Amino acid sequence: MQPIIHLTRTIVTAALVISAACSDQAVMPISPPFGAASAAKAPPQPPAPIVTSTVYDADASGAALLTRSDDFNGTGSATYTTANNITSHISESGAWVLYLGNQTARTIRLALASQGIPLPDGNYSSNVELYSQCFDSSTTQISILAMAAGAIYGNCSFGIDFSSGNTKYKLVMSPKFAGTGSAMVTCNAVAGAYCTRWTIVPNPNAANAGVANLYTFSQSRGTVLLVYDGTYHNSFSVTAVQ
Q1: Percent of the chain scored above 90 by pLDDT?
Q2: Could you tell me the residue range of the domain that residue 219 belongs to?
Q3: Do residues 173 and 158 lie in contact, with contact meaning Cβ atoms separated by under 8 Å?
Q4: Domain presence at residue 42
Q5: pTM score of the predicted model
Q6: d(Cα 90, Cα 67) in Å, to the nearest integer?
């Protein structure tokens, strides 16, 4: 699959520190003024449950996906759980996150060169992070924990942070990145007040369906920047189960 368009490299401020790389948020929040905590009691934090994430190699029609599993413990898919420098969870803000830390045993397979990206197709491991966040119509983040059974959020992101050589990249589609597509998150089961089982796939009905931008991480004076490298595609199928 050929790239849709290549533009002059554009720099976008992404965050003040690299630990925010998995977010679609443009700038990390500044700490509240001293003493502000005493003005009002903070609301209780929502749960941040550990989940088992399954990454599939093909979609429902059998077509190979651009983001695939390592087939480590299955054929055609693999499960990832929190252990051995891997974390798989729903964050307190209500986003799905799968992080492969400082290890090489588990990987995510990415089809990059075969769609025109100047990086090799292959299995990527150390410090790979996949994430999905959902937003309302004003692009304010909403929690996938609060979904009812059968509910579908179609205004969501899907991003992958990964490294090749000494360079770190982000391949992302998100309502916060103009010209890209969106992901669709479905709640398949609930327990008590929270959703406990999700499916994450590209939203076929969204504008620019399947389109994802590639960025290079760069740092200048303590600020992490995203440098635009091109517009490509991504496809994926993920389930997460508490």
Answers
A1: 78
A2: 11-20+50-241
A3: yes
A4: no
A5: 0.84
A6: 20
